[in-house]
Amino acid sequence: MKVKELLTDETRWSQGAYAHRADGEVVKFSSPEAVSFCLVGAISRCYWLLKDRKPIYDAVCDQIGESFIPDWNDAKERTFAEVRALVEELDI
Which helix (H) or strand (E) holds 37? Predict the structure, then answer.
């Protein structure tokens, strides 16, 4: 599964933690109860092996112009539309 298949709408995206349950509680990105994910959580969920995630992290960092993806994802002004456009553009 690609990130763009996981982050299909705003209800599947989160800020402030890698993943949340339906009730809003924080869970691990690998939890079967996880229903929403930040960008890093979604990448981790879709690409289990670090060797597969590393080039994706690098591509995201290059695209956003930052070296720490959670800061970008969790920025107060960040929108789901921006995250969605990024994953579409990178085809991840």
Answer: strand 36-37
